[in-house]
Amino acid sequence: MVSWTVIGIIIAVLVVLVIILYNSIIRLKLQVKNALAQIDVQLKRRNDLIPNLVETVKGYMKHEKRVLETTTKARSAMLSAKTMKEKASASNMISDTLKTLFAVSENYPQLKANENFLQLQEELAGTENKISYARQHYNDIVMEYNTKIKVFPNTLFAKWFKFTDELMFEAAKEERKQVKVKF
Amino acid sequence: MRIAFNEVRNNKFKSVLLASLFILIIGFLGAVIGVAYGNLYFGLIIAVLFSIIYSLIGYYSGDRMILSMSGAREVTKREFPYLFHTIEGLSIAAGIPKPKAYVIDDSALNAFATGRDPKNASITVTTGLLKKLNRQELEGVIAHEMSHIKNYDVRFMMLTVILVGIIVLLSDFLLRSFWYGGHGDRRGKGNLGIIIILFAVVLAILAPIIGNLIKLAISRKREFLADAHGAILTRYPPGLAGALKKISKDPDPLVDKANKATAHLFISTPFRKKTGIITNLFSTHPPIDERIKRLEEM
Q: What global pTM score does this model have?
């Protein structure tokens, strides 16, 4: 009689522990989703700013057609990107072309005096920063989630509930190198 | 970035402890005054009611009181896009809602954060700071403040300003009435002597408690922790180190916009620098050189 009670208590405690574990993993998973949405918000914001920038710059930079074209192309690549990998590479492409564009703009003093351009430049620099922070936050959370479902004994339950690894949002390798500006 | 859950729990617990202590002290004061006037319960109940209401007001609008005390004004994105973007970016990195942005029009270099939780928080910087720091340095400072918000330092520090502030005021008032009570018109009341003795006793009890509360609030560990968490946020410790260097070389602290009660909120002490062991022991901030050294070693 007594032994049955003991077994019952042990089972009850185990069930409660598994429920707590399950909930904490789900909570993290939602945070991962939320962090990913944050990246998307910033990526979209940047994409919305680019047409304005191209429009403003067009009149001044008559000899830099190629730069403007690649910027527009990178933007449409971003729009059609579906998977995280595609998004990451399209996002890095935009970052690079924008860097080139702003570097080239240094040669146009009239453009540098344009109020609208300066505003867009600050806005885009801010958004660029936010993208990298959003990406950093996302990667932090993903790392926490991936660790959580891999440590023992969590890993046993993770398989039951079909929790799988989330992908990190990779930074481009070029970002670590010096940026080359082609004229 | 994850801040140890401990840190948050610790700050929430300390806040409750502080409010309870406050209610206890004021209640005790009320009881003493009640006894002096012949009705203990009346004094006690009035005092406890007052202290509960005051604590609630402090909890819900203490940040606004502190902001107006410091002469800070809320700014729009149009006015300070650069500050706005920095705050927004780092709140994304920390995974908390964007705090409101405030500015103090002053050439001094300083900053502070306040609020009751990450959803109701604000970051204030001086216009001098915006002018003299570069982007990495400003990010370092904002990240430091963001960490204060994320681990609920702001709640505890705000309550300290509001609750300890009024106790200091009250005990100043009591002390004054103790010194000057003997002079002038006595109105022929026989129990004045008792009141004076009671006040003396109360003051003797209050003084060490207040001292300990302030020590609790200004724990230097808090600043070092916020520096470290801030560095994790920006992934670039030299940013904050550079900012602290500029701040320490700044000859003009924020004397007129800060007072003893709000001093511990700021990223660097708003008073003129004094050297010496005693001032160091009671200062509200760890020595800035020590903070820079730790950041550079990261």
A: 0.82
